Amino acid sequence: MPPLHALAIFAAGIAAGGINTLVGSGTLITFPILLAFGYAPVTANVSNTIGLVPGSVAGAIGYRRELAGQRARAIRFATASTIGGIVGAVLLLSLPASAFKDIVPAFIIVALVLIVLQPRLARALDGWRARQARAREGEHTGPTSLLAVFASGVYGGYFGAAQGIMLLAILGLSLPDEHLQRINALKVVLAGLVNLVAGIIFIFAAHVAWLPALLIAVGSIIGGIVAARWGRRLPAPALRAVIVVVGITAVIRLI
Q1: Which end of the chain is more exposed for a tag (fewer CB within 10 A), N or C?
Q2: What is the per-residue pLDDT across 145-159, written as a single tens digit (0 to 9) for each?
Q3: How would you label 180-219 residue by residue, b for 16+ Cβ within 10 Å and e otherwise?
């Protein structure tokens, strides 16, 4: 691998680790980079998924204070996420590679729409929380919420771009009285679990480009640590703009 390619993948890993900790769409940074350097779409996705796991661990450690007191709900949601991640990974390996190449552009477009609409989603969630607080409804973690988390896990195991945004919306509706930072901390754990279980399956059943995966892993650790400590200071509009540009590039590359 040329040194410049290695440096670019490492830098993309840093950006993706930070973005995943803050919002959840880091795949739209690393996946297009791997495509641009000639890796097949499925190999790029598999290697990217494995590489981003350490960054999620670093982000979760950085959010450990916000995770305090959430053990019971985390276990419930984690079970749904884990099962969904396994199903998504199996689907990726069972369906033909051509299906992935045909489906992923649509996934990326949906992810980009979610990213662009994120401020409106956040305002909608704030309004929902206010209404639920007035009604004193408390926590909603019943079958519907668990099914939604499971579905996001299937998506994450298959591809995963913007899985974090989906989880933020689901958890925000399920936990209307909870602080957003605590919801975000739970999101980091759930998305990381999906990547972990999918990554374990990929290690044994798929072709992995190990050098890119390692470069992304090291970079994502750095990005996760930095984002958990200082990343909240980054201007959200600028972050979304970068992700949208990279995502559009990925769609053009795949098509």
Answers
A1: C
A2: 899 999 999 999 998
A3: bebbbbbbbbbbbbbbbbbbebbeeebebbeebbbbbbbb
Question: CA-based angle 225:21:130, to the nearest 5?
Answer: 130
Q: What is the pLDDT of residues 42-74, one digit of tens each?
A: 999 999 999 999 998 988 888 888 888 888 888
- Indicate the SS3 state at residue 117: coil
Q: In angstroms, what CA-CA distances link 202 with 51, 53, 142, 158, 195?
A: 12, 13, 31, 11, 10
CA distance 13 to 27: 9
User: How far apart (Å, rounded) are the C-alpha atoms in residues 4 and 195?
Assistant: 27
Where exactly are the structural domains of the chain?
3-254
- Tell me whether residue 65 is exposed, middle or buried, using C-beta atoms within 10 angstroms of its C-beta: 0 to 12, 13 to 18, 19 or more: exposed
CB of 214 within 8 A of CB of 4? no
